[in-house]
Every structure is written in structure tokens, then in C-alpha cells.
Amino acid sequence: PKGKRLIALNNKYLTYKDTNRIMVIHSVENRGVGEISDNTNKAEADKAFELYQEMVNDPKYDGKTFAVLTFFNDQAELIRKIFEDNKIKESEKLKIAVIEGIQGDEKDIVIYSFVIRDPSQKRQYSPLTGETGDIRADINAGRVNVAFSRDRLQVHCLLSMPIEKIPSGIWIKKYLEYVRENGEV
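Predicted structure:
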């Protein structure tokens, strides 16, 4: 009819529980106990497994693919071990990797483990800040872009400290602020 506008809507959203969100930040309590290295976060690794189990046991996730991603090899190995200890191996439906390990691949659901639990850990992320005068800043920007563009339906961010305490200059902080402010449908 004349005078009416057609508004296109994407109704293929898969929201998490009753949150009306497709991008979710999960606060994880971590006191640094039992860590293997500065590049691990056992509480986040455990939460990644718990979250994965919750979703694969929910019928609305039937047939969905998953990735658990981190920036650190030590963390990826820790997560992989927790999954394997629980008799879950990687497959076409589940990928556990550092961000470079998923380039060119996408999954329906992505769980990110950021590891950082204290502002003093900023040095671990310095390659991702551009603050070190790194000549490879463009390559590192590409790594971050790859990391945050692997999901199709849902993003879950495991975070062991408030966003406000993450040092400025870490690109991850900007991403997390975006998730917090724009994750709702």
C-alpha cells in the first residue's frame, strides 16, 4: 500500500537463554590459583567446557558448530586437555585453537577465553596493542580481525576482570566494550 515502508528484518537470531543477546560476556572468578603459566586461566578453561556442555545439551543448538578460541597456545592446550579428559575430542563440530588456527574457518558459536585476570598482564597482550612500536602492527591488527570475525550466530566472552580494569590500548578492550553495548538483538 501507498505510504508504507518495507522494513527488512533478520529473524534468524539464536539468542542465549532468555538474555535476548547474541554476544554475551561471562564474568569468571579467578584468583590465579593453579595456573600453569601467565598465559593460562584455568577458571576460564573450566567455564569454556561448562558453557559448551550447557549448549550441546540444549536442543536449540542441535547441529551447531563450536569454536573455543584464545590468543595463547598454553591456554588452547589447557582447554583441549579439559575437553579430552571429559572424552570430547575436536571434530568438524568443535575446534579449540589459538586465533591463527581458525583463519578461513567459521563456526556458529564462538567462545573466547581472554586469559587476562590482572592489569599487570598487559605485557602478554603488547603484540596486540601496537604500543611496542612493533613493525608488524598491521599483521597484528589482522590477527585481531581474524579472531573476532569467526562466528555466525553467537559469541561468548569469558572475562576474569571487569572491562574497566583492562588497560587502555589493548584492542580486546574495545571489542569487549562493543560486545557489552551491542550484543542485544
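Summary: The chain is about 30% helix and 15% strand.
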